[in-house]
Amino acid sequence: MSTAFLLVAIAGLHQVIFAQVSPSCSTAYFFPSPDAEWVVPGSNLIFRPSEGYGILDNLSWGVEGSQSGRVTGTTHYVETVDTWVFVPTQDFELGENVKVELAFERNGRNEQFLWSFTVRKKDLNKTVEYKNESWVSSPSALKNSESDQFNTVLPESKSSLPAFNAGIDRSLRLPDIHITSIKGGDSGSKIFAAPYSEDSISNFHLVFGGEGDSILLYQEKRHRRDELYAPYDEYGKIVKYDFATNGFAVYDTSLTLLYNVGSEDYYTDFHDMQFLPNGNVLILGIDTREIVRNDEIVTVQGTSIEEMTTDGLVVFVWLSLDDDSIAIEDAAPNYVDFSSDNLDYMHTNSVDLDDDGNLLISCRHMNAVFKIDWTTAGVLASRVIWKMGGERSTIEVWDGGRPFHGQHFARRLENGHLLLFDNGMGTFPFYARAAEYVISEEGREASIVWEYDHDRSVISYSRGSAQRLPNGNTMICWGSVGEGDPHATEVDPDGNIVWEITFGDSTDRFSSYQVLASTMTLLAAKPFLQQDPGSARLLFTKLGDTEVSEFAIHLGHSGSVFPYDTTAATSYEIPSVFSDYDTLLAQVEALYPDGREGVFSDIITIDMTTVGLDEIVETCSGLPLQWALLKNWPNPFNESTEVAIDLRQGSFISVDVFNLLGQRVQQLYRGPLSEGVHVWGLKSTGMGSGIYLLRVHDRAGKSIVRKITLLR
């Protein structure tokens, strides 16, 4: 280990102070820290002087690797956190030793810091596979145990929840949704949920609101099961985790994408992220290393926390595997198999900014909440201020003999208390709850002051959240639950249920990572459009816009789209006439009854080779057609063909012919029609040989499209 020393030299008329940085330096924060041995190849170099250190000028970096040689890069100063960052032009080489010389002027005096670190020999962070939260048994098996502790009678309200199906297209495999609400009207809140099915096929982002917070406002199908989907009211942001990019997408209240952010050096953890008052963000990550344990090489997954600017410049880093006060052996054996060659010993699932600027993190596999020093600019052997729960807890917890286990979503409340969701999977009897604690940091003790456990009827082996609402109520997401259990419950301070939601039924069980409430006003700037994965169905909506009357469907290829159809629904089946295309472009336009200009979604590209199309598609409302398109004759045709429809009741109808470029070549009719059969003659004047699309459409959003062929 290095030892601190100071050399003073006379250079001309200037004193030059050389300081070898020790691993316990209190003058400034350095990253990578002196003598670090597990530095990732893509690391930035960070320098943050302690408060009152003085004004620095003419700062420069000298960086040299034992394999890379002289390392070039760019220097950035982040004024909001008084931090200098050196970004190397290229990654360091694996296993090399790197020496750093940091020179600057301070108060008219030249100073220089010297330190070194070693790059890890193998970088596993780019190949890590996230492992789902696990337990010894499923919640259903636990609930069905013959032990008396599991013979719980469910409240009658659970088996008699009213079905809720307003506006839901069952073909999308949305779960059955049951809502109980006694709020007595619109509370002004929105409920964000991300239920997923056990088959990992039917996974959604959903937003509820309106009367009794019970109207489905938004639905988006997603690919993976565990994804953060959360409102951040204080900052006016909505965040989605994207497994495809291993990072977070940040939106404003108009659902406009502001930026993407995630870790470049560690595997971005989906569990949580936080915004900071200084404009930066906190990103959780998984730091994977190979270590020697009991004379064997094992893979261990620790926690990384990075503070970074919204454009990804890292300004502060904490790594649990480099913290002297956190031991792998402190993990709970019911979560971590110590005989395994892969140890996920922390499993951090939440991060929160504490009132004093430090951090609170919840670590499931430690059964503990840690407070991490985020304000001291120094090189510290440990940044753990205290540990509450689990082995070697430094906070004595008075909890009535029931410590929290496998907890999630630890948050500091406005009253200074700590609220968390306790999965309770290490205590008997097994049941989940929301728990609130008052903490005396000076006295190093905590006491439980409030809890809600739903009559001890809910078993949750993973996931979950507990959120204190502005009205004093608590929104609880029960995570991975068994059959018949609710997914989220809002209770008042006295434990009375005021809102509850259940997804799925006994044949299609759903779980939720979090369910969170928001009072933000949401109004999408444009429609959201996506392809239902693996199908020829388009899904779309314009969140918060109650004035949209219908959507126009625009389809095409070769770089452009054209108006093709309209619908009053929020899904649309692509007609089979497009089956000959390898790719198809799609866009939707939100239309308004007062005739104002429509609002367009982004254009998406659909790989038509991976989807199946029906021969004739009846789109939109799901109601039976009140008319039929009869076979046109002849088809193929030369000079003319007859087009006929049979109306079962009067309707407003348009009959159009398009070429394969999406250009309308003829409009045979547009207007009201009475009940009965109506026939039009289609003449081929001005049309060349080829395939055309005959479309019949009504104002209810029903369309039928058919191929017709002109032969000259």
Describe the structure.
The chain is mostly beta strands and 712 residues long. Helices cover 1% and strands 47% of the residues. Among the domains are: 5-118, Sandwich (Immunoglobulin-like); 549-621; 623-712, Immunoglobulin-like, CATH 2.60.40.1930. Strands 11, 12, 13, 14, 15, 34, 35, 36, 37 and 38 form a ten-stranded antiparallel β-sheet that branches. Strand 49 (651-658) and strand 50 (664-673) form a beta hairpin. It is globular and about 95 Å long.
Note the main attributes of this structure.
single chain; 712 residues; mainly beta; Immunoglobulin-like; ten-stranded antiparallel beta sheet; six-stranded mixed beta sheet; 53 strands; disordered N terminus
Strand content: over 45%
Provide the structure class. mainly beta
Number of helices: 2
Number of strands: 53
How far is it from the N-terminal to the C-terminal residue, by CA?
89 Å
> CATH topology of the domain at 5-118, anyone?
Immunoglobulin-like
- Please identify the top-level CATH class of the domain at 5-118: Mainly Beta
Question: How large, in whole angstroms, is the Cα Rg?
Answer: 31 Å
* Biggest sheet record: 10 strands, antiparallel
